[in-house]
Amino acid sequence: MYDLLIRGAGLLQIDGAAASLLPGHDIAVRAGRIVAVAPAISPGLAAEVIDAAGMLAAPGLVNAHAHAAMGLFRGVAEDVPVDVWFNQRIWPMETNLTPEDIYWGTLLGIAEMIEAGVTSFADHYFAMDEVARAVDESGVRALLAWTVFSGPDEEHQLQDTLAFAAHWHGAAGGRIRTCLGPHSPYTCTPGFLSLVSSAARASGLGIHIHLSETAEQVSQSLAAHGKTPVALARDAGLFEVPALVAHAAHLTAEDIAVFADCGVAVAACPKTEMKLGVGVTPVVDLLGAGVAVGLGSDGAASNSSYDILEAARLIALLEKHSRRDAQVLPVGAALGLATAGGARCLGLGGAVGALQVGMQADIALLRLDAPHMQPAHDLPAALLYSAQPADVDTLIVAGRVLMRGRRLLTIDKGRVLREVSARAGRLTRRRAGEQVATYPEAS
């Protein structure tokens, strides 16, 4: 017997730079995994059947870098430089957050991700026990890092995040995994980064960190330490454990070689990087060096959405435009960043990111009957360049249906929207001299 049978879908297949469609196939799921893929499987063998005829079945999308609760600040810091964005808008407002705010903000972000076909995400934020609670209840998959900064209480922060990591790692039937989250070299001293790396090695955890987001960060690091942020992180030992780096928009050839040699994964967040005007991750160069690359949304305060297909579309167009080469980052490669590439970034390579026997049953079913998806000459290309979040009909994680017919089954969306609305006014207040950290101004 099967727990779930998906019938008659067209299956998205990604093989390197190529993407193709396997028409009219069934997918059988047992104990959270795909156990059979065939043109026809008897529905009498399944406890639950989903008729997906005329739909596209794709691997669940992976958001490799997010701050899910930051949807609470969507639209409050538009058209400002990155230092103003941090110092005058976001970091002062984040002092208003309570753990309960973060819980509801995270549910808002997860609801949006589910509706956009995202089954897994890497989150880097505060009050992560509440984030984990939201992940557990909603049924998605996540890699969670509690953001820490240097300061008088840095060792206390580190102990708290280690306690969180130990409590939640492997929870929710293995859907939740944890790592350590030093914010960045510009908010953490080299000594604190070394302390975090030692703690990560001792506890068997990985690292999730922001690096080389802007050219100014690189020049400031060179002036202060005589090395790039990437070299600084390497020398602090952060790459001696599995490491996920966000943004990395300004890299030297030596930095890229360090990532390749150390097995560092990179999450590109093209929409945030474009909106803040800071430069975009050199994805093609990283892939050429053998670096694992995925796509992130960042927070909705800078990105405005958690749409990973949009991120795949943007990075494909950006690379084609900047290199004046229409053949760069073809459809399969761009979709691979949003699926298997992201899975590698989260340490889930070989477990999610493809519709194959033995993989976790993390599956998105998309309708194809909207005008923007027709005619169906090339469905993988339509998925990359034409699909919208509203096309996602059904979402499944570990064999559990989280959304069907666009109806969320694990989240009370109406209550989430009411809770977020009730908090919005209070969260945007700013008090002089109060902010969670300080972004270094350009020299």
Question: How would you explain this protein's 3D organization?
Answer:
The protein is of the alpha/beta class and 443 residues long. It folds into two domains: 4-59 and 353-408, Roll (Urease, subunit C, domain 1), CATH 2.30.40; 61-345, TIM Barrel. 38% of the residues lie in helices and 24% in strands. Strands 1, 2, 3, 4, 5, 15, 16, 17 and 18 form a nine-stranded mixed β-sheet that branches. It has a five-stranded parallel β-sheet with strand order 9-8-7-6-14, with helices on both faces. α3 (128-138) links the parallel β7 (118-125) and β8. α12 crosses α13 (331-345). The mean pLDDT is 97.
CATH superfamily membership of the largest domain: Metal-dependent hydrolases
CATH architecture descriptor of the largest domain: Alpha-Beta Barrel
Number of domains: 2
How many β-strands, per DSSP? 18
Q: Gap between N and C termini, in Å?
A: 65 Å
Radius of gyration: 21 Å
Q: Strand share of the residues?
A: 15-25%
Arithmetic mean pLDDT: 97
Helix content: 25-40%
Any low-confidence stretches, pLDDT <50, length ≥5?
Answer: none
Gross morphology = globular
Number of helices: 15
- Output the structural class: alpha/beta
What descriptive keywords fit this protein?
2 domains, TIM Barrel, alpha/beta, five-stranded parallel sheet, 24% strand, nine-stranded mixed sheet, Urease, subunit C, domain 1, 15 helices, 443 residues
